[in-house]
Structure formats: C-alpha cells, structure tokens
C-alpha cells in the first residue's frame, strides 16, 4: 500500500518535472532529465545526507524506467497532461506528504533530532522540485510563493512524524503525510499566506 | 572558545542569508531557507565530500534552532540589521576565516593533500554563500567580485592550516583563520584586486 | 594508456570551464573555480552517489594542480585557446566518452542496474558542465541544445559499457567511449536532432 503510493507520488513528480521541461521548450533529453531529477532528486539528496549510498532511487530500476516512460508520455501528449491541472495538484500534494513523512523516517533512523528530521523530510519532499527549478533557470518556487504552503506543509508533516513515531510507527507515517496534505489544501482554500518582509 | 566562535560565525552567516532573502522579497519560509542554507550549507558540502554523514550541522539541534531564530529576527527587524553593515562585514569575515580553517582540519583528517585541504576549507567557508546566491537566482559573488578577496582568502587560510598543522594544531587553526581575515580586510583597504581577463 | 586519456579529458574539461569564466568576465578566481568544477565536478558527483568519499579527484593532487595550471594558462592566453575551437570540440568529446564509460564502470562496481549505470556514466560525463553552467547563471546546455547529442551520447556509451562489461571489461570501456564519440560526432555531421515539444 505505502509502496504503491510512493510509486504514484514519484510518477506525478516526474510528470510535473516533464511539464516544466516542455514549458521551457527543452528538447526530449531535457524533458527526461527534469522528469528524473524532480522524481528522484529529493530522496537522493536525503539519502546522500543520511549516508545511504548509492541512493535508493538509483537502485530501483523499475522506478527509473517508469519515470522515463512518464517523461516520454508527457513529452508526446503534453497538452492533455496540462489539462489535468486539478488532479495533478492533488496527486502532487499527496506525493509531497508521503515523501516528507518517509524522509522524516529516514532522518529518525539516522538518529537526527526534531529539526534534523524536519529538514530530512522537507528535503525529500521539495528537493527534486528545487533542483528542477534551478536547472530551468528559475528561482525555486518554495522561496517566494507565499500563498502556496508547500515546503512549510512538508516541514510540519515531518515534525508530526517525529512527534508520533516513538508511539506508533505506521500511524506516524500516515498522520504526518495527512498533516502535509491538509495544510497545503486547506491553507489554499482558507487563503492562508506566509508573511513577506515589510 | 573555538566552539563559541563557530556559533558566532554560523549565526552571522544565517543573518547574511536571511538579509538576502529579505532583499529578494522572498516570503518567511524563503528567508528561513536562505538563513539555514547559508549558515550550514558550506560545512555540509564539506562533510558530504569527506564522508561525515549525516553532516555535523544536521545533528546539532541547538545550532539549527538558533539559525532559524536568527532568520526570524532578521525577517522581523531587517532595517535595523541592514544598518549593521560594518559589524556584519567583520563578523562575516571572522566566520569565513574560522570555517575555512576548520574545514581544512576536516580535510587533513580525511587524508587529503594541500590542494584537497584548501578546497575543503574554501568550500566550508564559501559553499553556503554560493548555494544562497544560486537559490536566489544570482551568479555567486565569489566568481566576479574582483575587489573582495573572499574565496581567495579562505583558500590561503586553509593552506596555512595545511602547512602549520603538523607542527602545532591549535596555532595552525588560529593562524589559518587569521590569514583569511587579514587578507580580506587589508586586501580591501589596500585596494588589492584579482585580475580580470583582458 | 587509459590513465593518460583521463588526464587529457580532465584538462580539456578544465579548459572549457576556464573559457566560460573568461567569456563571462569573471575574475581570476572565478575562472579557476569554473575550471576546477568543470574538470572534477562530474566525477565527484558520481563518487558521492556511489559512496566513494572523499571523491577520487579530491585525493589526486597532481591532477588538481594541473587543472589550476590550465585555468591560469587559459586566463592568460584565452584568445589563442578560443581559436582552437575544433580540437577542443574533439578532445571534449573524447573526455565525455571516457568519463561516461569510466563512470558506468563505477556504477557497475556499486551494483547498479542498467538505468543506474547509465545515470552514473552520464553524470560523470556531463555533471561538471552542468555545474559550470548553473554557476555561470545559465540554463545547462544539455537540456535544450537539440542539435548536439551530448548527454544522450554519454547515456548510450554508458549503456554499451553495461551490456559488454560482463563479457570483456577492457573492450567494454573502449567500445562504450567509442559509442559516445561516434554518436556525438556523426550525429552532428548527419544533422541528427533530438525532438522538441510540439
């Protein structure tokens, strides 16, 4: 079940990376690179930081080939994929929540404290998107999109995992991911915004 | 004593990162990300390269929370912090010297030779600032600010540590940091400039 | 023999990095940083990912000093180096082929499958150039230069190494590098282009 959700999240991340490559007018290789980087970049940064080398994504052949396949499909049928904006928004949020919660678990296993665990979770969730943005020549969206609680939601979800994990591992994973999803989705509905400097 | 100076250097780096985020008009999360990346990015790159995983900063909870607190304070009171340009310049130089010297020590412990040690020291000193600049969508200042001997000063300081460490460890650390500080500060006063291509 | 070719490839990569720094108007330090990053960045990213820490380039003092020397020479004599466009193109292609094949070998040693090996090889070949472009404030050329089969050629060469390595190690290395070189050079001559989104 968790495994299936990870696949879903990874492939949606791949699709958002590929869409960015199409939007930028990159060639097929550029689109595949952005798909791959967005899908497996965050988890790989986290694996490097906690010392799991090679990163688990590099050792997951079926996942890598599926990411490339998604990249190809988006490259070929991008107008239809772009029309799926709403489901992509929700699936991307689900992926964010999952990766943040799983990254927090890896941080706990590496013996990190609350802030370290929150950073490991947040990097797992947003690191791929940050790499995608930097490679595309853009400032990472998480730094200035005050109306989209994205990295903040991942940070909160990872903290939830940290707090609940000693009591109940599976519930911690589930509730951490849920906290991320709820904060992002309801944050937008309620018009929550991060403050900006005065 | 060294420990206290490391804290001071890290927190000043956090402040310069947060100021960059404010200047760019990033939101609160963006400001905190730049504070964190600038403060612990250089040492973390170095720790990854020498194989100290997780990086020591990720395991230092009091430091991480303090970095976030500095980010919050700068976000809230940035006009007052910006007015402290001169003390920030000197404290930032002190941080640079310390991190370069400490990074050089980590390189020596990893068995590197002089150039490797100098790179480890330089990356410790300037890596966080380079990440801050790239995430902000800017070309890293160390690449073109010919009139500010910043990375060059870190490189020199790390070489001093390499040369003196076999004789006297503590003096090496102190004199390496001092070399960096003196080269940067007097380089500016004397109008020293790195050459640019003709 | 292979060792001599690695040196040649590394130094040509250093020259292309230094040329980019000159073109950008960076100062001497910036030129040396780009030379170093371009020359040893790809192999270092790969070493981090497969867990060879410190990366082999950081432990190769003669190579590091030679890279810096090349950076100095390009800084001083850049008009003459720029005039060598054609030989640099071929030597750069040779370096790409070699690094991709050697990176694929490191990936095989780390127990990766075909896609992981291809990624390890490609990152070895193009990672330094990607870092060079990002630090220069540019979108990496491999993402959009549809008429230059660069990263694609590295990917193919690494796959060739993966396929042939179990049968004959040395031939695999040689034929993998050759596949990269041929695809890039004849791709250009035949006007092959990667597709771009419609």
Automatic annotation (TrEMBL), chains A, B, C:
Q: What Pfam families does the database record attribute to this sequence?
A: Gly_transporter
Asked whether the UniProt record includes Membrane among its keywords, one would answer: yes
**Chief location of this protein?**
membrane
Q: Which keywords does the record carry?
A: Cell membrane, Membrane, Transmembrane, Transmembrane helix
Mind telling me which InterPro entries this protein's record contains? Gly_transporter
Membrane spanning stretches:
143-165, 171-187
Tell me the membrane topology, using the record's own terms: Multi-pass membrane protein
Pinpoint the Glycine transporter domain residues.
7-75, 90-165
Instruction: Please state where this protein is localized.
Output: Cell membrane
Q: Which family does it belong to?
A: Belongs to the UPF0126 family.
Identify this protein by name. Glycine transporter domain-containing protein
Q: Which organism is it from?
A: Thermus aquaticus (strain ATCC BAA-2747 / Y51MC23)
């Amino acid at each position: 079940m968790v495994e299936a959700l990870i696949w879903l999240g990874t492939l949606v991340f791949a699709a958002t990376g590929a869409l960015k490559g199409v939007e930028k007018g990159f060639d097929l290789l550029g689109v595949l690179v952005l798909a791959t980087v967005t899908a497996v970049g965050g988890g790989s940064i986290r694996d490097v930081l906690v010392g799991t080398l090679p990163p688990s994504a590099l050792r997951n052949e079926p996942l890598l080939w599926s990411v490339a396949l998604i990249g190809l499909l988006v490259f070929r049928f991008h107008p239809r994929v772009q029309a799926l904006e709403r489901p992509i928004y929700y699936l991307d949020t689900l992926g964010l929540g999952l990766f943040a919660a799983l990254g927090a678990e890896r941080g706990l296993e590496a013996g990190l404290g609350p802030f370290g665990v929150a950073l490991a979770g947040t990097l797992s969730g947003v690191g791929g998107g940050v790499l995608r943005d930097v490679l595309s020549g853009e400032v990472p969206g998480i730094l200035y999109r005050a109306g989209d609680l994205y990295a903040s939601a991942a940070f909160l979800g990872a903290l939830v995992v940290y707090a609940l994990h000693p009591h109940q591992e599976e519930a911690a994973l589930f509730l951490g991911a849920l906290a991320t999803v709820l904060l992002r989705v309801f944050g937008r509905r309620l018009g929550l915004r991060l403050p900006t400097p005065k």
